[in-house]
Automatic annotation (TrEMBL):
This is 3-(3-hydroxy-phenyl)propionate hydroxylase. The keyword Calcium does not apply. One of its GO terms (molecular function) is 3-(3-hydroxyphenyl)propionate hydroxylase activity. InterPro entries: FAD-bd, FAD/NAD-bd_sf, PheA/TfdB_FAD_monoxygenase. It comes from the Bacteria. It holds the Pfam family FAD_binding_3.
Amino acid sequence: MLVGLNDPRLPRDADVAIAGLGPVGATAALALARAGLRVTVFEEAARETAAGRDVAESRASTFHPPTLEILDDLGVAAELHEVGLVSDTYQYRDRTDGLIAHFDLKAISADTRFPYRLQSEQQNLVEIITARLAAMPNVHVVHGARVRSAGQPDGAGVALTVEPAGPAAAGGDGPGPLACRAGWAIAADGAHSALRAELGIAFTGMTYPERFLVVSTTDDFETLIPGIASVNYIADPDEWLVLLRTPLHWRALFPVPEGETDEAALDPAAIQRRMQGVVELDRDYAITHARIYRVHQRVAERFRVGRVLLAGDSAHINNPLGGLGMNSGIHDAAAAAAAIIAAEGGDTGPVDAYEAARRAVAHDYVRVVTHENWESLQEEDLAERRGKADDMRRAAADPALARAHLLRSSMLAARVHEPEHAGSQG
């Protein structure tokens, strides 16, 4: 059920407390609740604010095959498909040379029951799962609440301190801090995780020199560029880009160089110049949304401290090239929930294995793949660019190579992570 921080129906104890109700926290909550555990979820943001919906416009929107399998097992994939767009092909292109390689995910039909990507804003999944959680008596969802600490004084549970967040907290009119206890806690509170910081876990990595500009338009690139796929990675040494289709619009992602200010990049005229550089129109593009954000590659040094498990952006963040961030976070959520369920049943093996397994995927697979995607799109050396393009053409033309490539880019290979997967294209 949905409750407030000062609601008398909010219990002061739970089997599992979750910080964060994004796609990661929501997935973990549903998996745990379906197993019969008592779950409390604390989400900092107020529910369904206009600002939240606006920010969601430029967040993750790609669900890969193994992620759809997880969501299907949780009973929410069908509903997500109702507000999604099936994308069973994608392309690598070059601004100068045009189409380089076309991949069809039907080549992995024998490997997954979802041989495609589903394009749907991450907020759609959160809303679908929140509706399920609201109807479950063993779940309490609290919006406008921030988990500030998670101590483990006796090793047998987690002592949480939760405080109000948002307008009520700023005005001093809301309830004071709340103390509660849980058998386990999952930190799914994002890249600026308060729990990760409170636990003293280092978040090592790097920040990219350029920022990323995301522009949404209702103009149809399938009409403007005949033969284009729903997802396209377009290489160029001066200004690479990604073009992908979502149910409501087309989204273009551009790099913003260090010398260009956010204000200059977001100027409507500057946005039009970038968009006209993709396909020139005799009018302005119809722009519905534009946002700039910094991009990082960071992995937490620890994914578990006692009875607190980190998942999603609180544990790892990466550039979005390949759509691996949210997906790997949802895989974290499923693994964390399964580990806690097993531990509650007396088997602590999965909890003990969680950190090594999930950190290996984040550090050795997702981090490396997404960075190599970034390097490939902006390669300046002409011989290197042509060599990479030839390799991609060969992969697309050979059924065995195409399947291997698709298993890696779809994250199916990451289910049983091996070192050689790290160098693959995403």
